[in-house]
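GOLD domain-containing protein
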Amino acid sequence: MSPSLLYILWFALLSNLFRLTCGSPLTIELNRNGNDQRECYYILTTDLDCTISYYFAVQHGSNNDFYINYEIFAPDDQYKPIISKTHERQGEWAFVGEHRGEYKICFDSGNKNEKIVDFEINYKCNSGSSIKNARNERREKRKTRRNIKDTNGGDALQQSIEDSLDNIERRLYSLESNMQYYKNRNQRNHHTVKSTEKRITMFSIYGILLIVAMCGIQLFVLEWVFKRSRR
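Tokens:
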């Protein structure tokens, strides 16, 4: 077997293993044994404009400290984060990965306190042709609304503006998806609260009826005992 074929098989095996593990929840420890250091994890996207979603929650923190900091880096710049959050206890977000390659997310405790964090990250990619067709359709609609003539890609400035509009549209779509997710989750939580309140009310009514029944039984038993004692 040729070395190139072995390399291809090895790369395919690693890719499959990564696909199996990237969507699995992890439990990580920050500042274990007092070591103040960052913990970084990576996810490899296979195409452009993939939707990357992540979730984390601090499950334990020493000295009642449950807040951490985190940063996310794109493949094109591993030194300047595209997302940076501080003093966060939990989060569940999604964003569009414009570049293909390795994205890095780093967690930092922010102090010397030990913390245990549940963490999960995954991605979903659409085919490049469908993205391109969707972009072209959106551009044609914008041109029709604004009566803009097609320059067949000859105007670099117009192309740059169209790319910027696509970028803004992707971000708005990601924001809309997040808002819809939180709306659905809020509705589920509201339904759970209403169901719990209903059950509490029913149990309270059952408890009151049970107490009234027990009082009636006690009165009946006492009356029966007194009648027997008078005979």
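Confidence is low (pLDDT under 50) at residues 11-22.
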